[in-house]
Amino acid sequence: MAEPERTERRLRPAPLLFEPSEAVADPEHFFDLESIEDPRELLARATELTLAFRAAQERAVEFQALAAAQLADPRRFDRLTPGAIAEQAEWTEDYALKMIEFGETLQHGRADLT
User: Fold this and answer.
1) Is the entire prediction scored with pTM above 0.85?
2) Phi–psi pair at 100, nearest 5 degrees
3) Which of 114, 111, 109, 112 is nearest to 1 (CA)?
4) Closest CA to 32 of 44, 17, 43, 47
5) How buried is 96 (Cβ within 10 angstroms: 0-12 exposed, 13-18 middle, 19+ buried)?
6) How far is CA 72 from CA 14, 56, 102, 103, in A?
7) Residues 97 and 68: beta-carbon distance below 8 Å
8) Model confidence over 43-72: pLDDT tens digits?
9) Long-range CB pairs of 2-9, under 8 A, 24+ apart, other chains included
10) Are residues 20 and 29 in contact, defined by beta-carbon separation less than 8 angstroms?
11) What DSSP string describes 66-93?
12) pLDDT digits over 10-42, tens only?
């Protein structure tokens, strides 16, 4: 039986422009937000960045889960234990087990992550 499709809308992140190296060295500099004087414009851009980072974080977690499931696959001759995956990803072993399970769910229910 096919799994139901996810109906939640994927957020389209705002463009994350690369910053010049001299700007990155300045701890007060963050995506040029400090130079925006209009509070409405600042709120809009900061909100765009927040949504972009949130969407990027969610997508990265999905890829972590997929990788964990693939690494733990018993059909692999070089499979890793949940403990080894946890160590590599700096997780607890319990969290690694949950991520492996989540990754297996993604593998069986979704093919649109690539």
Assistant:
1) no
2) -60, -45
3) 109
4) 17
5) buried
6) 34, 24, 12, 10
7) no
8) 999 999 999 999 999 999 999 999 999 999
9) 3/108, 3/109, 6/109, 6/110
10) no
11) HHHHHHH-TT-TT---HHHHHHHHT--H
12) 455 555 555 555 555 666 778 888 889 999 999
Residue type, position 78, single letter: D
* Structural contact between residues 19 and 31, judged by C-beta atoms closer than 8 angstroms: yes
Q: Is 10 helix (H, G, I), strand (E, B) or coil?
A: coil
Structure tokens at 13: 């992140």
Contacts of 16 (CB under 8 A, 6+ apart): 31, 49, 52, 56
Q: Which residue has tokens 């059909």?
A: 75
Tokens of 30: 């963050």
Place of tokens 């389209």: 12
